[in-house]
């Protein structure tokens, strides 16, 4: 059975999620777009993917969210043995350009830090 590739968008802003959906449709990507409104919800999705027949192509992760923010999610991913099966290609997509957020992001294995809004050009670099 062919593995379904997925992109997980983790953002509490519905406009950011809709923008991601529009961009993925525009790029005609053969992926399943999954969404989570905060880090805890994203963890549940990632665990489910690890147990199923899916492949997580990319995580587009916001920093500032309720319940569990992006940095807390990165910490959880870093230290959870049950998530070792997940392909952790994470791109931080944030409206924050604060140097402390950018410096903190460098402490994690993220592949880039993008300023919102996400565009097709920005996303296509990672696919």
From TrEMBL:
Pfam families: Response_reg
InterPro entries named in the record: CheY-like_superfamily, Sig_transdc_resp-reg_receiver, TCS_response_regulator
Signal peptide segment: none
Coiled-coil boundaries: none
SMART domains, per database record: REC
4-aspartylphosphate carried by residues: 62
Protein name per its UniProtKB record: Response regulator
Organism field: Pontibacter toksunensis
Lineage: Bacteria, Pseudomonadati, Bacteroidota, Cytophagia, Cytophagales
